[in-house]
Design brief:
Structural class of chain B: mainly alpha
CATH superfamily of the largest domain in chain B: MetI-like
CATH topology of one domain in chain A: Rossmann fold
CATH architecture of the largest domain in chain B: Orthogonal Bundle
Oligomer: heterodimer
CATH class of one domain in chain A: Alpha Beta
Number of strands of chain A: 9
CATH class of the largest domain in chain B: Mainly Alpha
Helix content of chain A: 25-40%
Largest sheet of chain B: none
CATH architecture of one domain in chain A: 3-Layer(aba) Sandwich
Low-confidence stretches of chain B: none
Largest sheet of chain A: 5 strands, parallel
Chain lengths: 213, 559
């Protein structure tokens, strides 16, 4: 069981007796598993299940492991699942740097060191010097990149992507796809991508699972 | 789990005082009150009650007040929303009316008195030129035997409440689509609204309407200020008996409280009949395809009712403040001949203690209610279950059971427990009424919060407590402070529970102001009414300004 990556072990999610998802897969570090399906097919419930926020209306069985450790037995905050949604969802009451510093693990000590790490993360996504900005003043593309930088700073063990590119315009979308998948590969993070966009699935390059009617 | 305590404590806090309070009213009504030597059950007190002079008149008056208040305020709100929702005028009137929500009933009642009394502002404005009055005419405008001025005072206060409730229900119905559809079928605005949209809205504001009926049919403070005196409305008489130095009057008061319960129940039952009648009428008209295209006058009436009701209260409040600074102010003069701070300076030492109690009781009950409301909402979020209709009705219980019916008994229990007229007892009594409003005020914004923020923070490795403190609380600062402002306004405006539980030793600006009503010293009443008005307003000002100040750098946090 000491295998690296994300392992979905006989995961089965049902809503009111209707089975939405039945899945056993391995996602290697840096690899991507794409789950495709129309809206309402329950593909987001898989993501919520892994993140630890499955609505109690759903019933789930099976388990999920990351690097051999069962995450589905852990509370949400100990799963270290980096999530990106279609909206960047930057915390509106914190500056850009504030968002990033908030994401840093508590074990990362020192005020100046934390600030420096945030600055560096901004630099890594091409937004050097934007730390003091109010997130509401950023462009859509900039927000998406801050959201990515934020999730990477938290030292996640996997990435969960819920149609993260669907609200960006065509050009930005391609850029963000490259950026996200590059970063994931660079850090060896297993990625679960949930989408209904074929181009996303293609760019991800990994295995594609289709669910729903 | 901590959040589990939320619903449990809330249910206990809501039902406990009401259940025990009702029991504490029923037993003395049946003659059982060991402290006064009443050991055997008897119906004698009910017999005494029905021998009280004009008791049925008092009951009838209360019954009528409940129905008339609800009918008029609901009709005004309905016509206004039907005629103007979605227009610019709508927003303006909404802003005009909303502040009145925070105004205590007693303050609104005083405002009306100072406007319409024979020596009031209206009479002064038209005298002596139009009326020829050199002295206040000997007319019974305020305290009229039919209770018209009392109902008017209740109506101007309930309109803002029902408007707000309607506005909260409006986004949940396809308003624009229905308006366009009924319009394209040729229906007038009001008819289209009434036939197409109103049933869905009304279903959602039914409990608030019932609360209005229950309140108006058992009101004490407004009744004391504006209501008839011979006989007075039922609840007013009951409180007089309750406060009678002759303790054996408590039997009578308790029996009367049960009569009040029946009166309120009867008005609600009659209202249910009215509902059905209204629905049948609407259906008939709709089935006949009546279009009512030329409804401009009736729309104008809706607008006029809204503006007038708000205008009356604001003009009255301005008059009150004027009185508090007035030196000599002879009758037909529209303005005092001199201004002075004398009244304020004289009233100051006596008002400090009531002010302190108002603030303490208000802040403490609001704090507890806010924590409980948040715990309840967190618990609902965790379990994914929204409260059933039954649970919501429970929340309305303190607003549907006439206050006299259970606060009488509650007072008795507090006497037994030896905690009458203590701050904790007062806070507990206030909590019963603050809790429902706190919960209802926070519920929608809480549900509207995008929970994905919470998920993201958890993905970042933040614990529940950290997520709550760093994400949820700051992002919901505005609605949480608004909830607190609502709660505080409710507490500051509570009359009956404060009078009975405070037992004259703990007084608030509201109880003091009402106590001054019979004295008729306009200047002092002006000072107290000013505080009544300003305290809740200050709460709402803080709830608006503080978040704007804290988050001034963040555009995403502005409204």
């Amino acid at each position: 069981m000491e295998e690296k990556g994300l392992f979905l072990d006989d995961v089965r999610i049902a809503l009111g007796g209707r089975v939405l998802i039945e899945l056993s897969r391995r996602v290697p570090p840096g690899g991507v598993l794409t789950v495709m399906g129309p809206s309402g097919s329950g593909k987001s419930s898989l993501l919520a299940y892994l993140a630890g926020f499955l609505d109690p209306a759903f019933t789930a069985s099976g388990r999920a492991l990351v690097d051999g450790a069962e995450i589905t037995a852990l509370p949400a905050e100990e799963r270290h699942a980096g999530i990106l949604f279609q909206d960047p969802l930057l915390f509106p009451h914190m500056s850009v740097a504030g968002n990033l510093i908030f994401a840093l693990p508590e074990s990362f000590k020192g005020r100046t060191a934390r600030l420096a790490a945030a600055e560096k993360a901004l630099d890594d996504v091409g937004l050097a010097g934007m730390g003091e900005r109010d997130p509401a003043t950023l462009s859509g593309g900039q927000k998406a990149r801050v959201a990515l930088a934020r999730v990477l700073l938290s030292a996640p063990r996997m990435l969960l992507l819920d149609e993260p590119f669907s609200k960006l315009d065509m050009e930005l979308r391609q850029q963000m796809r490259m950026l996200v998948f590059d970063k994931a590969r660079e850090r060896g993070l297993p990625v679960l991508l949930v989408t209904h966009d074929e181009a996303d699935a293609e760019a991800a390059g990994g295995e594609i699972v289709r669910i729903g009617p | 789990m901590l959040t589990r305590l939320g619903p449990i404590l809330t249910i206990l806090l809501l039902t406990g005082p009401i259940a025990f309070g009702l029991a504490g009213t029923v037993l003395p009504a049946l003659g059982f009150l060991p402290a006064l030597g009443g050991m055997e059950l008897t119906l004698a007190h009910f017999r005494d009650l029905f021998f009280e002079p004009a008791i049925m008149m008092s009951a009838g008056l209360s019954l009528l007040a409940g129905l008339v208040t609800a009918l008029f305020s609901l009709t005004a709100v309905m016509l206004f929303v039907a005629g103007f929702a979605g227009t610019r005028a709508f927003g303006r009137v909404q802003h005009l009316v909303s502040p009145l929500l925070s105004l205590p009933h007693a303050a609104a009642a005083f405002a009306l008195v100072f406007l319409i009394a024979p020596s009031g502002m209206l009479a002064r404005l038209i005298s002596p030129e139009i009326t020829g009055w050199q002295r206040p005419p000997d007319l019974l405008i305020v305290n009229d035997p039919m209770g018209i001025s009392m109902m008017a005072g209740l109506i101007v206060k309930e309109i803002p409440f029902l408007l707000l409730m309607t506005l909260a229900a409006l986004p949940q119905v396809p308003f624009r689509e229905a308006r366009m559809l009924t319009g394209s079928l040729g229906y007038g605005r009001v008819a289209g609204f009434l036939f197409g949209i109103w049933p869905a809205i009304y279903r959602q504001i039914r409990l608030p309407v019932f609360a209005v009926i229950a309140f108006a049919s058992s009101v004490v403070d407004v009744g004391m200020i504006l209501g008839p005196t011979r006989p007075a409305p039922l609840a007013v008489r009951l409180v007089e008996w309750m406060n009678d130095p002759d303790l054996s009057m408590r039997y009578l008061a308790s029996a009367g409280a049960l009569l009040q319960l029946a009166v309120t129940g009867l008005s609600l039952a009659l209202w249910l009949r009215l509902e059905r009648l209204g629905a049948t009428l609407c259906k008939r008209m709709a089935m006949r395809g009546l279009r009512f295209r030329r409804d401009a006058p009736i729309r104008a009436a809706g607008l006029a009712a809204m503006v007038l009701s708000a205008g009356i209260v604001f003009a009255g409040l301005a008059t009150l403040v004027l009185w508090s600074f007035a030196g000599l102010w002879q009758f037909p003069d529209a303005l005092p001949s001199s201004f002075t701070l004398k009244t304020w300076i004289k009233a100051l030492p006596r008002i400090l203690e009531p002010l302190r109690t108002t603030l303490l009781a208000g802040l403490l009950s609001t704090l507890i209610a806010s924590v409980l409301a948040i715990l309840c909402l967190m618990h609902q979020e965790e379990t994914g279950r929204r409260p059933a209709r039954a649970a919501l009705s429970l929340l309305y219980l303190p607003l549907l059971v006439p206050q006299v019916a259970f606060v009488f008994g509650l007072q008795l229990l507090l006497i037994y427990a030896g905690v009458l007229a203590t701050l904790p007892a007062l806070v507990l009594a206030h909590l019963v009424f603050v809790m429902p409003y706190a919960y209802l005020s926070l519920r929608d914004p809480w549900y509207a919060f995008d929970r994905r923020y919470d998920w993201i923070a958890a993905g970042l490795g933040k614990s529940r407590a950290r997520r709550f403190l760093s994400i949820r609380l700051p992002m919901l600062t505005r609605p949480i402070l608004t909830m607190a402002a609502v709660g505080f306004a409710i507490s500051a405006g509570l009359y009956l529970p404060t009078v009975l539980v405070g037992a004259g030793r703990l007084t608030t600006v509201t109880t003091e102001a009402v106590a001054l009503a019979s004295g008729g010293n306009g200047r002092v009443i002006g000072v107290y009414a000013f505080w009544q008005m300003i305290l809740p307003m200050a709460g709402f000002a803080i709830a608006t300004l503080l978040p704007a100040l804290i988050f001034r750098r963040f555009r995403g946090m502005q409204v």
